[in-house]
Amino acid sequence: MSAPKILVIPGSHRASSINAQLGATIVRQLEKDGASATLVSLADYPMPIYDGDWEEENGAPEGAKKLAALMSEHQGVVFVCPEYNASITPLLKNTLDWLSRDVGCKPYAGRAFALASCSPGALGGIRGLSHMRDVFINVGADAIPAQLCVGPAGSAFDDDGNLTNERQISLLQNMSAKLIERAKQFS
Question: What residues pair up with 36 in beta bridges, in sequence order?
Fold first, then answer.
């Protein structure tokens, strides 16, 4: 069986995003565990704020169609979720909403999903992940139970971008192994 392909999508595209940094860390772990992993930036998939009237007039934006097609080429997807006010960022929520529309394929079907977050706070963004799971239930995304929450972000990484906390490293390894195991079922 070939290595499953896993797409890693940070929910922030800020230049210094700690969630993009965590995304790169996740990619390294997935590859170490035998997956083929790809990190993308939502900046490369622009989408207007979801508006039913806009959609009726224009259809789905090209950014949503391209991201959906890319997701469909992978057996697993990790969303790395910043937390805004204990919930999902506007960028990430908008992306999730567009991907649930007619984008030429069904990006939530037939693949495994994992959730991770990173936050300056001690909880590591866990409150936002519960909201992600609520959205996933509604769109039919198969999210594994294992997840990763990293905080406080200021001391979470060494100079090479690796996690420093043994518990968080263990959670990363567990999430990676469980996602790869589940993604192989979609190969």
Answer: 5
In this prediction, residue 15 carries a pLDDT of 86
Nearest CA-CA partner of 20 in 36, 44, 4: 44
Q: Determine phi and psi for 169, rounding to 5 degrees.
A: -60, -45
What is the rounded CA–CA span in Å between residue 22 and residue 186?
25
Q: What is the pLDDT of residue 1?
A: 61
Domain count, the chain: 1
Residue 29 makes CB contacts below 8 A (sequence gap 6+) with 172, 173, 176
Q: Which residue has the tokens 């866990």?
A: 126
Q: What is the pLDDT of residues 151-174, one digit of tens each?
A: 999 999 999 999 999 999 999 999
Q: Which domain holds residue 103?
A: 5-186
Q: Among 76, 64, 110, which residue's Cα sits nearest to residue 7?
A: 76
Q: What is the CATH number of the domain that holds 18?
A: 3.40.50.360
Give the chain's residues under pLDDT 50.
none
DSSP code for 165 = -
Assign 103 to helix, strand or coil.
coil
Dihedral angle computed from the Cα positions of residues 34, 143, 107 and 46, in that order, rounded to the nearest 10 degrees? -90
Task: Say how far apart CA 163 and CA 65 lie, in whole Å.
Answer: 34
